[in-house]
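assembly run, all chains below
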Amino acid sequence: SAKMKIHKKRWNIRASEMSKNTLNPIRAIVDGMKLSPNPDKAMIALSIGDPTVFGNLPTDEKVLQAMKDAMDSHKYNGYAPSVGYQKSREAVANFYCSPEAPLEADDVILTSGCSQAIELAISVLCNPGNNILVPCPGFSLYKTLAVSLGIEIKHYNLLPEKSWEIDLQNLESLIDEKTACLVVNNPSNPCGSVYSKEHLQDILAVASRHCIPILADEIYGDMVFPEHTFYSMAPLTNDVPILSCGGLAKRWLVPGWRMGWILIHDRNQAFGQEIREGLVKLSQRILGACTIVQGALEAILNSTPQEFYQDTIGFLKSNSEICFSALSSIPGLNPVRPSGAMYLMVGIEMENFPEFENDVDFTEHLVTEQSVFCLPATAFEYPNYFRIVVTVPEDMMVEACSRIREFCQLHYRPCNQESNDLDQ
Amino acid sequence: SAKMKIHKKRWNIRASEMSKNTLNPIRAIVDGMKLSPNPDKAMIALSIGDPTVFGNLPTDEKVLQAMKDAMDSHKYNGYAPSVGYQKSREAVANFYCSPEAPLEADDVILTSGCSQAIELAISVLCNPGNNILVPCPGFSLYKTLAVSLGIEIKHYNLLPEKSWEIDLQNLESLIDEKTACLVVNNPSNPCGSVYSKEHLQDILAVASRHCIPILADEIYGDMVFPEHTFYSMAPLTNDVPILSCGGLAKRWLVPGWRMGWILIHDRNQAFGQEIREGLVKLSQRILGACTIVQGALEAILNSTPQEFYQDTIGFLKSNSEICFSALSSIPGLNPVRPSGAMYLMVGIEMENFPEFENDVDFTEHLVTEQSVFCLPATAFEYPNYFRIVVTVPEDMMVEACSRIREFCQLHYRPCNQESNDLDQ
Ligand SMILES: Cc1ncc(COP(=O)(O)O)c(C=O)c1O
Ligand SMILES: Cc1ncc(COP(=O)(O)O)c(C=O)c1O
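ok done. output:
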């Protein structure tokens, strides 16, 4: 009977292709960096896209109160519909409704963070083999999600010299019959740019001409500095269907709560029932946001005082001005002035820093020598820039800028070409 | 110049294959039913797998307090790591740790509900073209997720006459070289069954022989009636790697909070680093659970009093006994006695109810005449049964059973075959 023993196979468990194709460029780059801060200087991280980490940007008391009220009501512990409570969807619809782009509860799908909103939007619009157009530089999640789903991405260029407007010709040249969606992120991570109405209309004209729906990542919507205006895309078009993705994370400063949404704008009936039903179906895979946050949503949207939003924006503007003007005067650096969101991109004139190979090398040494960490923009597919997050306390921002100055002064080498020019 | 007008394409946006392939059999069946209750009788829904809807099963005060403390600490508003806070993972590890199957924080991945735990587990183990083995009758999400990802499902049979134990021969016969995972749901939705240690060992022996990893859906873990014992699978094997999926939804009665987890059990190193890294990567797609709930998790696990668990189980047992004994004495019905969870399956001797075509038809008429709604088990791929949820208040359960009796008495027809037998 020992001979009759069933042949035991060997264990051979491999991670799926999808998991292997779920690539996080920020993690990949940061994990590959040797980040050993200078022991004599306290670390200052200008890299973290989480406005809560330094404690200087708490959410509003009304927001916390809304959560407590939702808890105390004992009404929000059970399952919500997979697309969210009707009342909460209605609250979002009312908040974002405009005469030009009306919204009803049915046009809103609540999700687990803006990330899931983006995931559902991409998943419903694209099949494997399709492609989507994403900004470069841009937030990496679009690529992470698309590639893992077998969807190709095509990067369109943003123009730093035009405050990161889209290179429309380049954009249009990328469109082909497999293009399923155009992703527009305004205000932008990592650029901090805010598009004018005219530029958004130009983008919409391209989408309209080629009949490409838009995924508008408007998570930083309304987070624009006082002299600028945020235009949501949907009211600016009559025909281009738009899935606008947003959430509580940034404007209400509670990214951990994972409350996001999709606003379905489709006045031209181009999405029709099919996309709506597709989104509902996809929402049933894992259900959406925590019901306590959903229960608090109406009060959060309606009771947060204007001063809270203004104070946040005031702080972000002031800090970004401090940073922009400090870095503007540093030879070798070219910061691009932001108009909103929480970020600032800084160009490095690599030829003036011959010791360093690229932005990754540059920012790595900035940590080693000055204990200041900025994310190399290679993480956004945009080499030779780095991104600064302007949510840190003002004194840290000032200190960080002076350390960056010291670092640059130490390593800056004037180019021969330039000195030749000057000689002439 | 009018002639040079650029040819405008037509809008032709279709929902993706994935969204079309995300099928929810419960929704499909329920939406297809004509549910018009008898206006003279108040509706009693025995169909809803949400223990909170009737208000008779509130969560514990300590659980709510833990949430408020997490809120008040102001520490849990920012982003958590994508796999969850280290401290919260540690709390789960400690709670489920056993000498036979030790767990550390790194073995725990926090997710948005047990649903996302299942999604990540399937996504990391399977490629399109693989198959997974799922119970029949069984919770429909396994199939929903798998099919949408291009993974085939194979149903293995549960045996009602053996308290829904797995037909092991049938199970083993389904395994082929494409089988990537065996899903075991214990205690079971929809059966309310609880497997013995011996049966679990037999299942593990099959998995071990064929080197198939197990997805153990243990969301109803520990929810077993006093005379039964819940055995988690992991401590019962030394070689079979297990992803155990669970969460707060059922035992703590807060399904809306979307707090779930995966426990990685891999003492034999069959998953190795690859599966762990795959899970981490997948967790970065949309991030996981709400940080407030994560922040409360340690206190929830450690402070919820034993009486709370006992009271819940006591109620579920008492209600299921009431239901089981009432339905046992109804000619034409064959309830299967449950040992845990919140469900009870009832067989319908369809030949004795010739007016009705099947379980869907039967339960539809039960609504029309008696305003009692039970989910037809066709929703679990198991025709001619229906599922009862035993979380309703006792008086409703009693009333529902007496209405079911009335309905059955009205429609029951003895079979010719049986009367012949009696004549002999
Ligand atoms: C442009 C952009 N979109 C979406 C997100 C994701 O938002 P959430 O945290 O709500 O998932 C972020 C987060 O940093 C972002 O910068
Ligand atoms: C067997 C089983 N697994 C998983 C789940 C999903 O749990 P959650 O609500 O935490 O996603 C359920 C919910 O009903 C279930 O019955």
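The longest helix of chain A spans residues 306-328.

The mean pLDDT of chain A is 95.

not gonna interpret more than that til we talk
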